[in-house]
């Protein structure tokens, strides 16, 4: 097992660029299963979850060629459907949540899919009902095989239908779209997720020959086609990594430029940091975060305490609540964080409390942070990363803490952040990766 040793208190300065978006990468990589022709995807992040998904596609026969540092060619012209029934495939799927995104394209192209209950972050219940109800609306049959903990889905023919999703699930929407692009007739998805990554998936599918309208809205219409062809696609910068870098720069930065962030696709992220008092300068498509000796949390117009909560797009992404919460520990003022979408994502705050943060965990969904205004520094400590986003939040806390901290289970951070210690050390951080026996 590997750990990070972090020497806190070093100021960060310089320029850093975000990697390609993890969530988009998982979707568009799986979309390559919908055609026999070559699909070129650029700006794929070199992170554990994405690399494991690519390996899984190679296991089922997808031809993968590396064209550059982050550019790949994928061609699914010889898919080994029998491998989908194997114990080995089920085992690999169970450790990778992104594998759930294979169901839609496999069902859409081959009329069947077998997949294990996927793994991933331990952040609470993440049900798959929305996916399966969407498939059922298209005419698929499914059954859970209890002794193997797998799902088998079959369809003699998929037929378009109107559906109102019970929740605006991002992966559910992506899966239903990919299963519907070659269904007979027209599919209408209401209450669809409309995150930029869903928009990007739709743009790729249209470039492959699909007929999707309503992109960027929560009402998506898909006119089925008989086949799809090859295309080329570039992945957006990762908005969560952009937000993570803003948080680091706000707390320990001495002037940091974040390059090529795709500002129009950041939604409420910049406004939310500004509500915490963080100064952000927009320079074309770059962000400049100047040194912030003090940042003061806003209150609402009526003077009441600021509340920050997550919501489906275009609301604030839940993936940044952990980072924002850490940033608030050194602000001036108080703020209530309401994590609505996952019930276990705030449990990492006990580690911040051990480091000296003043946080009241009200319940599994709400926490009040009383900012120190840099008057009371966080203390170094030893901690373990429970999930990707809590892991990066703890890393940010360790960067600003006095003393040397250790974070265990950093494979969780590696799932979402490419060479994070090398990129931060280039800015002046002191982060060392060590092997712990």
From TrEMBL:
Keyword Repeat: no
Chief localization: cytoplasm
Annotated GO biological process: cell division; cell wall organization; peptidoglycan biosynthetic process; regulation of cell shape; UDP-N-acetylgalactosamine biosynthetic process
Function: Cell wall formation. Adds enolpyruvyl to UDP-N-acetylglucosamine.
Signal peptide: none
Similarity comment text for this entry: Belongs to the EPSP synthase family. MurA subfamily.
HAMAP family from the UniProt entry: MurA
Binding site for UDP-N-acetyl-alpha-D-glucosamine: 97, 319, 341
The enzyme's E.C. designation: 2.5.1.7
Subcellular location: Cytoplasm
UniProt keyword list: Cell cycle, Cell division, Cell shape, Cell wall biogenesis/degradation, Cytoplasm, Peptidoglycan synthesis, Transferase
Active site (UniProt): 121 (proton donor)
Organism classification: Bacteria, Pseudomonadati, Bacteroidota, Bacteroidia, Bacteroidales
Residues of the Enolpyruvate transferase domain: 7-424
Annotated residues for binding of phosphoenolpyruvate: 22-23
The keyword Cell wall biogenesis/degradation appears for this protein: yes
GO cellular component: cytoplasm
Record pathway: Cell wall biogenesis; peptidoglycan biosynthesis
Catalytic activity as recorded in UniProt: phosphoenolpyruvate + UDP-N-acetyl-alpha-D-glucosamine = UDP-N-acetyl-3-O-(1-carboxyvinyl)-alpha-D-glucosamine + phosphate
Superkingdom assignment: Bacteria
Organism: Prevotella histicola F0411
GO molecular function, one term: UDP-N-acetylglucosamine 1-carboxyvinyltransferase activity
Protein name, as recorded: UDP-N-acetylglucosamine 1-carboxyvinyltransferase
């Amino acid at each position: 097992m590997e750990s990070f040793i972090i020497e806190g208190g070093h100021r960060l300065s310089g320029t850093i660029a975000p990697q390609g978006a993890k969530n988009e990468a998982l979707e568009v990589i799986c979309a390559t299963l919908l055609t026999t022709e070559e699909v070129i995807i650029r700006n794929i992040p070199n992170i554990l979850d994405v690399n494991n998904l690519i390996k899984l596609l190679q296991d089922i026969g997808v031809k993968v060629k590396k064209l550059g540092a982050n550019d790949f060619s994928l061609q699914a012209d010889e898919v080994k459907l029998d491998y989908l029934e194997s114990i080995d495939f089920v085992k690999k799927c169970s450790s990778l949540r992104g594998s759930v995104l294979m169901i839609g394209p496999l069902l859409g192209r081959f009329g069947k899919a077998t997949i294990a209950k996927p793994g991933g972050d331990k952040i609470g219940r993440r049900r798959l009902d929305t996916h399966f109800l969407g498939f059922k609306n298209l005419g698929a049959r499914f059954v859970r095989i209890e002794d193997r903990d797998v799902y088998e889905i079959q369809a003699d023919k998929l037929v378009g239908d109107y559906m109102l999703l019970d929740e605006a699930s991002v992966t559910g929407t992506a899966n239903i779209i990919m299963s519907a692009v070659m269904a007979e007739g027209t599919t209408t998805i209401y209450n669809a997720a409309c995150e930029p990554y869903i928009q990007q998936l739709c743009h790729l599918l249209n470039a492959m020959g699909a007929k999707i309208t309503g992109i960027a809205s929560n009402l998506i219409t898909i006119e089925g086609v008989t086949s799809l062809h090859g295309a080329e696609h570039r992945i957006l910068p990762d908005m969560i990594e952009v937000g993570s870098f803003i948080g680091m720069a706000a707390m320990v930065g001495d002037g940091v430029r974040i390059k090529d962030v795709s500002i129009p696709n950041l939604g409420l992220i910049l406004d939310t940091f500004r509500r915490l008092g963080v100064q952000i300068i927009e320079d074309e498509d770059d962000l400049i975060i100047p040194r912030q000796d003090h940042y003061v949390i806003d209150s609402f117009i009526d003077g009441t305490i600021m509340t920050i909560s997550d919501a489906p797009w275009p609301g604030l992404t839940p993936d940044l609540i952990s980072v924002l919460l850490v940033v608030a520990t050194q602000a001036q003022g108080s703020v209530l964080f309401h994590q609505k979408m996952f019930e276990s994502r705030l449990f990492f705050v006990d580690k911040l409390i051990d480091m000296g943060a003043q946080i009241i965990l009200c319940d599994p969904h709400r926490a009040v942070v009383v900012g120190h205004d840099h008057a009371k520094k966080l203390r170094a400590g030893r901690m373990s990363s429970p999930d990707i986003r809590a892991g990066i939040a703890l890393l940010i806390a360790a960067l600003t803490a006095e003393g040397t901290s250790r974070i265990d289970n950093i494979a969780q951070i590696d799932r979402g952040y490419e060479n994070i210690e090398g990129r931060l050390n280039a800015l002046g951080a002191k982060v060392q990766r060590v092997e712990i026996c």
